[in-house]
Amino acid sequence: MIWFERFVPERLWKRLRPDAIYVWENEEVRKRLRWYYLVMTDRVPARFLLAKIIEIGENKLKELDEESLWSIREKAVREHRELVNKALNEEYLLEDYNRDKKGLGSITSLLDLDIEIIHRMFKPCRLCERLCLIDRSKRIGACRLDEKTYVHSWFHHLGEEAPLVPSGTIFYGGCNFTCVYCQNYDISQKYPRSGDVVNPRKLARIQYELRVFGARNINHVGGEPTPSLHTIIESFKYLDINVPQIWNSNMYMTERVTNVLTDVIDLWLTDFKYGNNKCAFRLSGVRNYFEVVSRNHRIAAREGDMIIRHLVLPGHVDCCSKPIMRWVAENLPRERILVNIMDQYRPENLVARYPRLWRELARPVYREEVEDVMAYAERLGIVYEPISR
What we know:
Layout: H1 10-16, H2 19-22, H3 27-32, H4 34-40, H5 47-52, H6 66-88, H7 94-104, H8 110-122, E1 149-157, E2 167-172, H9 185-190, E3 196-198, H10 200-212, E4 218-221, H11 229-235, E5 245-249, H12 255-261, E6 267-271, H13 277-284, H14 289-302, E7 305-311, H15 317-331, E8 337-342, H16 349-353, H17 367-379
Parallel strand pairs: 2-4, 4-5, 5-6, 6-7, 7-8
Antiparallel strand pairs: 1-2, 1-3
Helix pairs in contact: 6-8, 8-11, 10-11, 12-14, 15-17
């Protein structure tokens, strides 16, 4: 059943978010989000669609061990990247994909291979760098989830960055972080398994409905989408409509998971929280944060477009915000990256209940702190203004 109240009429969202229209007049945005724009406007096929037409030749994937699957993937990925580059140069268009898919029949594709790999990594669970190694079909993992995927809401989101609005946002339950100030703690930590259980076919149907009713993209978020990747990636097998896929994530995946995601994700909407491991462990309960997240940013930035979100935390400008901006400027291709410096921090979750334990976070962020980070980013040549609200 289609729930029409989930969808915002075009005339309404254009009135509420006119910046979502005129943002595309900005040359920097068009250049840095070129791939996303081509897919969004149905000029070229999304990456997950291209992965469907890369034939791997091996049709008995379940009989192979995991390392053999990775070996087969190497050649298929090279073909996939070549096809992506052709599409980026507009030498391979959506109409070409629609023609080619008809001639392929039933094949074993790169997408099938990626699905099998992720399902292997799911039992025991090695999707994120917590590496809890739990069989989630038998007990709850570190992400607070069992083997099921829980969707808490899905709708046309008007509050995202201007190039993404209206964004077909799907909120998944569970998270591999325990942020003491989490603004979505009800679905990430408190009641992660209270959403609707979805299988891959149902999730594909949700994405289809979001797109046909006007969403510019599909935005996988939470909580954190990584623990639900086994369902998300299989849903692409049943999704046959062109739509950019956005990975809205804390980027604490394992390296192998990040590599698989490069086959199917068109735009990375990343959350770069901390500039050091000490703050990450104290505030989110994760180890080796900076090494893991910076590694995954490097991998993702090579494949697909990227918007980096950084929420300025009160009292964390010098230890977190500025080191992140400096690392981005020195390690990522600045000419291809947009950064959203966010000022909407508010005390939530444990910080609101026990302010004495996290004294520096028990207040809103000062405007002077945000402006200090913005000025620092500008001196480093980071582009952030076109997409900020």
